[in-house]
Structures are given as C-alpha cells and as structure tokens.
Amino acid sequence: xxxxxxxxxxxxxxxxxxxxxxxxxxxxxxxxxxxxxxxxxxxxxxxxxxxxxxxxxxxxxxxxxxxxxxxxxxxxxxxxxxxxxxxxxxxxxxx
Length: 95
Fold this sequence. Notes:
Layout: E1 5-6, H1 18-29, H2 36-45, E2 50-54, E3 62-66
Parallel strand pairs: 1-2
Antiparallel strand pairs: 2-3
C-alpha cells in the first residue's frame, strides 16, 4: 500500500486493533508512554507509508506522520501552506 493509514476513520467500522483506541488514554489519562513503536511497526508491516490523524491542537485539522523508510513507490507530499509560514528551502529548517 502506498498511502498512509487514516486514523480519522477509527469509528467508522474499520477493523482497527484496540491499540489504536487505547494509546490516547494511556498517554493523556494514565500518563504512561504509549507503545507508539508497536503502532509504527503495524503500519509499516502492512505497507502503509504513514499515519493521518485528527489534530488535538486545531479543531478540524489533520496531522500526518510519514515513514520515509518505506520503499519508494512514487509517493509525494503536497504541502498546503496558504499563509506562507513554512520555509521555502532547506535553509529555513535549520535552527
């Protein structure tokens, strides 16, 4: 699969492992570091290139995690930056 897994669809009847539902409870309610490496392994083992999930910081927003170690399959990320806040070249990412 050359696409990210979309966690915004957790409650739409997809056959999700319970771990997907529990990690937020572990982190934010029980203050336990969640087993995110297990989640990443599941995603990578199933051929996904990343994870899309709802933003907790911006209502209606979406976050994307990309795993560049997945084999190249013609994937591309198109950045939506309508306010021009992101750097325009690599030098802008340096600290």
